[in-house]
Design a protein that fits this description.
Elements lengths: L23 E5 L2 H4 L12 H6 L17 H14 L4 E5 L2 H4 L9 H16 L3 E7 L5 H5 L7 H17 L5 E6 L1 H11 L9 H25 L5 E7 L2 E4 L5 H21 L4 H6 L13 H5 L5 E5 L3 E6 L28 E4 L14 H14 L5 E6 L16 H19 L4 E7 L18 E3 L6 E3 L1 H12 L5
Parallel strand pairs: 1-2, 1-11, 2-3, 3-4, 4-5, 5-7, 6-8, 7-10, 10-11
Antiparallel strand pairs: 8-9, 12-13
Helix pairs in contact: 3-5, 7-9, 8-9, 9-10, 13-14, 14-15
Length: 480
């Protein structure tokens, strides 16, 4: 370690830290957020097409119809990635672009797009990291029941086999699911994400069927990929804080629903007993069939970790108005916490905050990485999303100085480096996001990109954070 390192102690603002050889520096996007071309070349609607076109669901009535137009601008976007020195690009494949009705006929034009994308990445020396599912379920599958229906796992396995056969000779890493917590609880319980249902029992059935889809997709990918890809899944972990002396049970409940409902079956082959007990009033879990847990527990080469902020909880006293500051837009009549609604409340946390209202807490990332290492010591980890939305300002010369984002990235990369020094097998870091894009229920109101997108002209402008990240990727040394 060089002698000129500046130690930032508790504020996580170190400089001069050297990341190990082979550490991956990448960036990430998702299909519906950037591609556009929503009704072109055979693509049919997903649940997010339907949801975003439903009045009142998305800020300003925004949709992903055009987004960043990455579908038509992919070559120049890949050139930009190369200029920024990215080692890897994490993208998602749009299920309704490849199998437009969810099952049955394959849309060759859709597969060809992703084949060109993968070839373009490889030609530029960028590793393709492909996510099979980033929330864009084909609408016909939702019409037939969606993720609460077991048949959706059949469809997902078929889709995985199709994509594996087409791209598995060249993809560097396969990721089955992105943040199934959001798909299940926000989509079917709280209702703030597509398809916008408020059904707690359905949310828990979706949890299981997403877990099962992960296991079945891994088997299908391994059977059809002719290269030597690595296999992964990406989870958004909740790093919990307790408010008051009686918060331990509240933290346990949310940890079970948010974290262990996925790591339990995926990495241990079991659902936590306390999760089943906490949710017994909502469902009897009879949708779990013989051999499901064995199917879910498939070996993975790396566990994707998404982290943005922490959450503080306490037991609700049953009298004062309940707080629901869980970092997500609230929808009347829905809950993201089946079995713990009316039991646990989320407490507003101290700042500073991003433009999303999320607290900035790099210590939470360090705690998360070291905690996962302690629980699963043989499991390599990858930070697959970390980043921040801020209200960027374009200068008169067209440049975008975003010191808040640079500081956010510095602090969280410091946390990542400290985790490595503590013995965590951390393989890389993907900044979210490459481009300003369609931010789900917030439409185009929130900007996470290290590259600015003018949504009138679609012009791309690397922000100062992109240039800072370029220097980091080139030198593996945390810039001053």
């Amino acid at each position: 370690m060089p002698s000129d390192i500046v130690q930032g102690s508790a504020d996580y603002r170190d400089a001069g830290l050297v990341f190990p050889p082979g550490f991956t520096f990448g960036s990430a996007t998702a299909a519906y957020q950037v591609e556009g071309a929503a009704a072109q070349e055979g693509r049919l609607p997903s649940i997010w097409d339907t949801f975003s076109r439903t009045p009142g669901k998305v800020w300003n009535g925004d949709t992903g119809d055009v987004a960043c137009d990455h579908y038509h601008r992919w070559e120049s976007d890949l050139d930009l990635m190369q200029e920024l020195g990215l080692d890897a690009y994490r993208f998602s494949i749009a299920w309704p672009r490849v199998v437009p009705t969810g099952r049955g006929a394959v849309n060759q034009a859709g597969l060809d797009f992703y084949s060109r994308l993968v070839d373009g990445l490889l030609a530029r020396g960028i590793e393709p990291v492909a996510t099979l599912y980033h929330w864009d379920l084909p609408q016909p599958l939702e019409d037939a029941g969606g993720w609460p229906a077991r048949a959706t796992t059949d469809a997902f396995e078929e889709y995985a086999a199709i994509v594996g056969a087409a791209l598995g000779d060249r993809v560097h890493t396969w990721t089955t699911l992105n943040e199934p917590w959001c798909s299940a609880y926000l989509g079917y319980g709280q209702g703030g994400h597509a398809p916008g249902r408020h059904e707690p029992a359905a949310a828990l059935a979706a949890v299981h069927h997403l877990n099962l889809a992960h296991g079945r997709a891994l088997r299908a990918l391994r059977a059809t990929s002719t290269g030597a890809p690595e296999y992964s899944v990406t989870l958004n972990f909740h790093v919990l804080r307790g408010a008051g002396d009686a918060a331990a049970d509240a933290m346990r409940r949310i940890d079970a629903l948010a974290n262990r409902a996925f790591t339990g079956p995926m990495l241990k082959g079991e659902y936590p007993a306390d999760l089943l007990e906490d949710t017994a009033s909502v469902t009897d879990w009879s949708f779990v069939q013989d051999d499901d847990l064995a199917t879910i527990r498939q070996p993975i080469d790396v566990l994707g970790v998404n982290y943005y902020s922490t959450a503080t909880v306490r037991p609700w006293d049953g009298e004062t108005p309940m707080q629901h500051n869980d970092g997500h837009k609230l929808v009347a009549g829905g809950t993201a916490w089946p079995g713990s609604d009316g039991v646990v409340e989320f407490v507003e946390q101290p700042g500073p905050y991003t433009a999303m209202g999320w607290n900035i807490a790099p210590d939470g990332l360090y705690e998360l990485l070291t905690g996962l290492h302690d629980e699963f010591p043989d499991q390599p980890l990858m930070i697959t999303e970390n980043g921040a939305a801020f209200d960027d300002v374009v200068a008169a010369d067209g440049s975008v100085s975003d010191p808040e984002r640079v500081d956010y990235l510095r602090r969280h990369l410091t946390a990542a480096h400290r985790a490595i020094e503590a013995g965590v097998d951390l393989r890389g870091y993907f900044v979210w996001s490459l481009l300003d894009n369609f931010e789900w229920g917030y439409g185009y109101a929130k900007r996470f990109g290290i590259v600015r997108v003018d949504f009138d002209t679609l012009e791309r402008t690397p922000k100062h954070s992109a240039l800072w990240f370029r220097d980091l990727a080139a030198t593996h040394v945390l810039p001053r």
